[in-house]
Amino acid sequence: MSRGKTTLMDLSNEARAFIRAHRVGHLATADARATPHVIPVCYALLGDRLYFVADDKPKRGGPSALKRLANIAENPRGALVIDDYDEDWTRLAYLLLHLDASVVDSEAEYARAVAALRDRYPRYRSMPLTLSTHPMVRMIPRRWHLWRAGNPQEANK
User: Fold this and answer.
1) Domains in the chain, ordered, with CATH?
2) Other C-beta atoms within 10 Å of 35: how many?
């Protein structure tokens, strides 16, 4: 079991590798009344931050009208879970990131994050993702917890 302190820079190499080895995380946000909303997201890791973009997959109201974006505007606290499931429960694992989320407003940061997402996900290469049409969210972890069933004795960090 591992615990982080305040930022992603506190992640162990194992936790960073876990993030990079997985393709999808489950993002939990909540509105001002604490009503939860959980959705899968594709993400990229850049330095001490993770990013996701409101892409061109079909959505009611378009990319800017997403509940996750409205929730983040009302309440920037959230969580991201990245996990392994297997019928052999000795192979179970997850990384839980408690985070602060905000919409990216810098063209330079947006461009770096889009490039990282396009490197990870070929489908993004053909999407015309722009700051004005496809909001990008920056997720900064405050603390984290990595758990593996096969290694329950891992020391706290």
Assistant:
1) 2-148 (2.30.110.10)
2) 12
